[in-house]
Amino acid sequence: MSAAKSNLERLPRGVQVALWLGLLALVAFPFVGTEFYTQMVTRMMILAIFAMSLDLLQGVTGMVSLGHAAYFGLAGYVLAFVMPQSEAISLWWSLPLAVLASGLAALVIGFFVVRTHGIYFIMVTMAFAQMVFFLFFDNRALGGSDGLYIYFKPTVALGSVTLLDLDNKVTLYYVTLVLLLAVYVFLRRLLWSPFGRALAGIRVNEHRMRAMGFGTFGYKLSAFALAGALAGLAGYLWGVNTGYINPELMGFHMSAHAIMMVILGGMGNFAGAIVGAFTFEYVLHLFKDLPYVGQVHLGKHWQLWMGSFIVLVVMFAPRGVLGIVQAVTSWRKTEPRNDG
Amino acid sequence: MDFPTFLIQLLNSVQYGLLLFMLAAGLTLIFGIMGVVNLAHGSFYMLGAYLAFAFSTLFGSLTLAIIGGTALAVLFGLALEWLLFRHFYHRDHLDQVLLTFGLIYIFEEMRSLLWGDDVHGVPVPELLRFSIPLTENLSYPVYRLFIAGLCILLAVGLYLLISKTRLGMKIRAGAFNRDMAEALGVNIKLIHAVVFALGVGLAAFAGIIAAPISSVYPNMGSQVLIMCFVVVVIGGIGSVRGALISALLVGLVDTFGKVLLPQVAGMLVYMLMAGVLLWKPEGLFKQ
Amino acid sequence: MADVLLQASGLTKRFGGLAAVDNVSIDLMRDHIHAVIGPNGAGKSTLTNLLSGDLPPTSGRVVIGKQDVTGWAPERIARQGLGRSYQKTNIFLPFSVWDNVFLAAQSRDPQQPWNPLRWLRPAARSAGARQRCSAAIEMAGLQERRDAIAATISHGEQRQLEIAMTLATEPQVLLLDEPLAGMGVAEAERMVALLLRIKKDHAILLVEHDMDAVFTLADSLTVMVNGQVIASGTPDAVRGDATVQAAYLGEEH
Questions:
Q1: C91 chain-A contacts, CB cut-off 8 A
Q2: What is the pLDDT at residue C251?
Q3: Model confidence at B274: pLDDT above 70
Q4: For an interface test with B, which of A115, A117, A120 has the most B Cβ atoms less than 10 Å from its Cβ?
Q5: How far apart are the first and last CA of chain C?
Q6: E-strand spans in chain A?
Q7: What confidence tens digit (pLDDT) does each residue in A73-110 have?
Q8: What are the chain A neighbours of C79 within 8 Å (beta carbons)?
Q9: Do residues C18 and C42 make contact, with C-beta atoms less than 8 angstroms apart?
Q10: Helix, strand, or coil (residue B240)
Q11: SS3 (DSSP) at A246
């Protein structure tokens, strides 16, 4: 990673205001949107959690993982496995179980991959993720290429009293929103903690960090495992939201999409990951829903539009939306001031 | 396992390994010399396969496909390098990953527009459409031997190019110390273009000659890409010799694994990679 | 009897058939600056890398205090009390001067990256790190530049920052690799004054090309040529040594 690139860690006033407005919009949305759109925005929020988990690795620590989706999908599979066909199970234990499973998988795989650097790291994360993908894809017992159904939504109850009904799209929406906020707040605190500062140092100059006495392998492995666990949280929610899990959710296309989301918004501050996830999903649906022009169904060729979009962003806006905002605000700062 | 079966699997391993080598050699060179990670490398393989299909439908000749298809692929590689890749050599790996991922989408779509989404077959040339008998019941297709033979020829050619020619020397100099090489009059831009085109050509070549046995279908690039990455990781980035040994190793493990341990066959190669990483985190023959 | 904080004996590093460092022994003592000089390619950088753990020796031993640290990873050696500055400025360019030194100071707090409690407290809360950080910045004379981004300060200030970061980890042994590299006269004088200030309580190995600085600062010298020690002792003794004059000082820049 280029050492001199500075991440937008401290969010400028304008961005903070925009985030608060965004939060308000999210809180209000179910009142104005239909059930279909409510579920769609829930999806976007889940992907935002997934993107934030990757931002911890990629934006903060500088580790570009092409295999992060493995931990996302794995949690969904864990939910599918523990959910019997006859009745629902409790969220209280299934959620921690799924998150733990993803975190543990990330810890084990991380043990092998974190010892590599740069291009190697990219390649081995991809390779291990594909291994996990094929494990599920090739085995009927694990669902095979068709995937698995999640027959019920998990219950959220205290004793015999149901606290929340996750079958209700609006309830699930708000649960997801709360979790999104919790993860965001947690990660922002982490960024400024000793752990977060060390990770940022590792991104900028790992060699110097070691020379100063930091055991960088331990830090990177911890970040990798934590990011995996958080991806698992997102994956669990995805399973609850859609009721269906398949191997594609673990594949490298999904991982690459996550990378794009993080870049699109602006890396290293978690707010960008949220912005990027929403933007990416919105653009993807835009392309897929394109109408016919004459005989040609533009929407069918969404890969062409999506691919071009990705290429253009990388070429012209590599620091994403927040990068553009930062460039604009610093341009404005260098304008001559009237107050002398 | 009796000897004829063993021999067949061995020959299959070598043939598969050599094909992987064609792909991995290009990838490792492009990475070792220009520092670019290219996820779209599998797409070049796919390009070759579809060119083989196009040539065989239009002209009915595999020879023409090999020569013409590789030439077209090389030209395509030169254009791609000049238009796009050369502007990314100094960029972060992250940007390169995304750029090439976007290219995968674009290439898949272009393939869909040009040749549709059906699965196609490419016929084995008449001349090679027979088998060598090994026992009463078993025989080995000559075409597969032909593939291995061609790959060996190319591998030797590559070796000679890199170690014995002036061009090869310039390539190695550029990889070792770019600024110094430039100061000594080596046209680095040209070298980079040549290496890139060579990589694309090798990948497409592999796709062309493999088409008759692997058939031609959408997304065929992704599966071979991951194997290619595993080969390069095990062999060591930048090392062509490493890529060869690693490719043969992967060919052996994968082929024999499928026969001897079918339940874990898919995972064996990755376990091999994990093992190598524990022992040598930068590959077996890191430059 | 001087307090020996680092003892290197018989250090050798071979690359293939070539010995970049050949049977070098050095003792570093408290309140004492030991300079290593020699022409380019003499093996000085390799020697520094051997001592810091960046390179494992082919043979020989390194002992810090009473602990044999031969073959240890750089982070373990650093925690054993060794600090190092670099010839090519090796700082955190996008961070402010304060943040650079703070990160160094933070390394002395208990690490435990897996401990969730270390994930939630703000880093700036560590009083110990703050205190180490201010002390190092003051010693290096960078108080005025605390909030400046490291990429924007002058070359001389960046070299001062190098030293500040090395000091903030509170090492006992300092390896200083060409601290005066690329400095003008005024900057060099400031750096020499700084090095004299930090001599107290530290054992310092100084690799330098600037002969004026070396003879001002060094309490003892080692001269290396082609990986081997050709002379060692007080500056006057070394200056007068005929072999040294022929091999090195004679062909001075």
A1: 205, 208
A2: 52
A3: yes
A4: A120
A5: 37
A6: 148-149, 156-158, 161-164, 244-245, 292-293, 296-297
A7: 999 999 999 988 888 888 889 999 999 999 999 999 99
A8: 213
A9: no
A10: helix
A11: coil
- Judged by a CB distance cut-off of 8 A, whether residue B85 touches chain A is no
Hey, which chains touch A, using 3+ CB pairs under 8 Å? B, C
Q: Is A107 left (phi over 0), alpha (psi -120 to 50) or beta?
A: alpha
**Closest chain B residue to A302 measured between Cα atoms?**
B109
**Cα A71 from Cα A80, distance rounded (Å):** 14
Please, which pLDDT band fits residue C2 given cuts at 50, 70 and 90? low
User: Which residues on A lie below 8 Å from B237 (Cβ)?
Assistant: 119-120
Q: Which of A105-109, A127-131, C188-192 tops mean pLDDT?
A: A105-109
| Alpha-carbon gap, residue A197 to B251, rounded angstroms | 44
Please list every residue in chain A whose beta carbon sits closer than 8 Å to the beta carbon of residue B233. Answer: 120, 123-124, 127
Distance from the Cα of A268 to chain C's closest Cα (Å) equals 13
- When scoring A2, A60, A212, A226 by the number of chain C Cβ atoms within 10 A, the one with the most, hence best to mutate, is A212
Give the whole-angstrom CA distance, residue C20 versus residue A30. Answer: 70
- Interchain proximity A194–C95, CB inside 8 Å: no
Cβ-in-10-Å burial (0-12, 13-18, 19+) of B228 comes to: buried
Q: Do chains A and B touch (3 or more CB pairs under 8 A)?
A: yes
Cβ within 8 Å, pair A307-B106: yes
What is the distance between the alpha carbons of residues C144 and C137, in angstroms, rounded to a whole number?
9
Helix (H, G, I), strand (E, B) or coil at A83: coil
- Residues B151 and B21 sit within 8 Å (Cβ to Cβ): yes
Interfacial B residues in 260-279 facing A (CB < 8 Å) = 266-267, 270, 273-274, 277-278
Handedness of CA C68, C71, C73, C78 (dihedral sign): positive
Please state whether at least 3 CB pairs lie below 8 Å between chains B and C.
no
What confidence tens digit (pLDDT) does each residue in A238-268 have?
Answer: 999 999 999 999 998 899 999 999 999 888 8
Number of C-beta neighbours around residue C26 at 10 A:
19
Inter-residue contact C182 to C87 (CB < 8 Å): no
| pLDDT at position C49 | 93
Amino acid at the residue B155: A
Could A193 and C120 be called an inter-chain contact, meaning their C-beta atoms sit closer than 8 Å? yes
Burial label for B241, CB within 10 Å (0-12, 13-18, 19+), is middle
DSSP 8-state class, residue B8: H
DSSP assignment of C129-157, as one string? HHHHHHHHHHHTT-GGGTTSBGGGS-HHH
| Sign of the dihedral defined by the CA atoms of residues C212, C216, C218, C221, in that order | positive
A177-216, pLDDT tens digit by residue? 999 999 999 999 999 999 999 999 999 999 999 999 999 9
Please tell me the predicted confidence (pLDDT) of residue A334.
56
Among candidates B39, B101, B266 on the partner chain, residue whose Cβ is nearest the Cβ of A138: B266
Interface of A with C in 155-194 (CB under 8 A): 186, 189-190, 192-194
ipTM of the modeled complex: 0.91
- Residue A3: pLDDT above 70? no
Which residues of chain C have a CB within 8 Å of the CB of A207? 90
Pairing of strands C18-29, C67-68: unpaired
**What ranges in A56-142 are assigned the alpha helix state H?**
69-82, 91-113, 118-137
Q: pLDDT category, A1, cuts 50, 70, 90?
A: very low
Q: Decide if B226 and A311 are in contact by the 8 Å CB cutoff.
A: no
pTM of the model as a whole: 0.90
User: What does the pLDDT read at residue A339?
Assistant: 45
Looking at mean pLDDT, say which of A33-47, A324-338, B51-65, B172-186 comes out highest. A33-47
Contacts of C228-237 with C-beta under 8 Å, sequence gap 24+, read C228/C22, C228/C23, C228/C24, C228/C43, C229/C23, C229/C24, C229/C25
Is the pLDDT at A5 greater than 70? The verdict is no
